[in-house]
């Protein structure tokens, strides 16, 4: 039974999240349905869960195939059976010990904000659109720089899902503006539930002048969830990439 790794890209708008759901509306359900149509009645394992409405540029998953597949042929066969909102970008045969979740070293997320009076309809479903002109993005960028390192992110986790250990290590974090587009980028070893969306909510509070840098920094010492700001909408969030110690695909994206 060869172990196969898949790189998946999806528009999460119509899905209940990555994880398989009782109503079969998870991205995982769509991929497993395509595999069943190919005679592969298997469970796939993803590198990370994305919430309802969250997108992925490069989610990684693995499964143990029943049949032998050439990676290119498998990619084409799965894509022919997937909805238009999901695509397998790459496929590869891996070592039997490879685990998409446990072997991940870092996961990168990006959150996109559009700050202008009007918004292009082509990007509207994939950004948080803010019409106001009073945001101080330079100040928010300074607050974002405080995230790097090991901190207690208890204030950045949905209360109902708060684990006993809320300490996480952020490799890097930055908020940058290019014209009307603001992009928040974060790379960490693991995340708490809603951690990125709550982080963006807190950065928005700083950018809007409702809170200051000292308040933001105080959240990194294990504060309670109700002290921090609101959770922003999922539409602007993308699982951007998953980093492993070795390149499991060993090839660029197909053309």
Largest sheet entry:
10 strands, mixed
Radius of gyration: 19 Å
Amount of beta strand: 25-35%
Output mean pLDDT: 95
Secondary-structure element order, as H and E?
Answer: EHEEHEEEHEEEHHE
Tell me the number of strands. Answer: 10
In CATH, the architecture of the largest domain is 2-Layer Sandwich
Cα distance spanning the termini: 29 Å
Structural class: alpha+beta
Give the overall shape: globular
Contiguous uncertain segments of 5+ residues = none
Any idea of the CATH topology of the largest domain?
Alpha-Beta Plaits
Report the CATH superfamily of the largest domain.
Pseudouridine synthase I, catalytic domain, C-terminal subdomain
Number of domains: 2
Which percent range fits the helix content?
A: 10-25%
Enumerate how many helices there are, as a single number.
Answer: 5
Report the top-level CATH class of the largest domain.
Alpha Beta
């Amino acid at each position: 039974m060869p172990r196969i790794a898949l790189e998946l890209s999806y528009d999460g708008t119509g899905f209940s999240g990555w994880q398989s759901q009782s109503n079969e509306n998870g991205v995982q359900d769509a991929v497993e349905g395509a595999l069943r149509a190919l005679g592969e009645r298997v469970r796939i394992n993803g590198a990370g869960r994305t919430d309802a409405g969250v997108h992925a540029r490069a989610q990684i998953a693995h499964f143990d195939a029943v049949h032998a597949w050439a990676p290119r042929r498998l990619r084409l066969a799965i894509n022919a059976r997937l909805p238009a909102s999901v695509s397998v970008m790459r496929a590869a045969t891996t070592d039997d010990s490879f685990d998409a979740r446990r072997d991940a070293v870092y996961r990168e997320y990006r959150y996109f904000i559009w700050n202008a009076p009007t918004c292009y309809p082509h990007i509207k479903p994939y950004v948080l659109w803010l019409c106001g002109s009073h945001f101080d993005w330079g100040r928010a960028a300074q607050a974002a720089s405080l995230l790097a390192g090991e901190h207690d992110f208890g204030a950045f986790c949905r209360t109902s899902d708060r684990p006993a250990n809320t300490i996480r290590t952020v490799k890097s974090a930055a908020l940058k503006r290019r014209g009307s587009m603001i992009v928040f980028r974060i790379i960490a070893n693991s995340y708490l539930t809603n951690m990125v969306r709550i982080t963006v909510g807190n950065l928005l509070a700083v950018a809007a002048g409702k809170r200051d840098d000292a308040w933001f920094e105080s959240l990194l010492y294990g504060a309670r969830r109700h002290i921090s700001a609101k959770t922003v909408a999922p539409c602007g969030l993308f699982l951007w990439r998953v980093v492993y110690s070795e390149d499991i695909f060993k090839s660029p994206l197909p053309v």
